[in-house]
Amino acid sequence: MPSDRICRPLGRAHNAEGEGPVNYTERLRRLAFNDDALADDLPSALTRLGLDAKTLALARVAALVAMGAPEASFASQVDAAISAGATASDVVDVVEGVVVVVGLPRAVAAAPKIAIVLGHDLYDDEDTGRATGAARA
């Protein structure tokens, strides 16, 4: 596909003629065909998305759960979500919400990473004075 036909791949971009916004089907087509301009225009396209910062950060947390991301990746997006007004409970809701899609093992693997980012030690339950999880063994 010639990249000269497409000026911006995502977000509220304009069509190749510079007129009007590109609708979601055109944006999906560009993603599906891995348009050459996709990588070049991605940073500016993210600022044009119709999602607020909180929703976008929470969606990214869900994506990180799905891919089994490392703690550092969660740190960045959980921090962005909290900074945008999400609560720790919102972050946990997202993890629980994607279990049926990504599988319980992915959510279980993500939970301690997210807990650390949120400043919680899953292996020391201060409320009850008892150890939980692996610390019990």
TrEMBL record:
Top-level taxon of origin: Bacteria
GO molecular function terms attached to this record: peroxiredoxin activity
Segments forming domain Carboxymuconolactone decarboxylase-like: 50-111
Organism: Microbacterium allomyrinae
Coiled coil: none
Lineage of the species this protein comes from: Bacteria, Bacillati, Actinomycetota, Actinomycetes, Micrococcales
Protein name: Carboxymuconolactone decarboxylase family protein
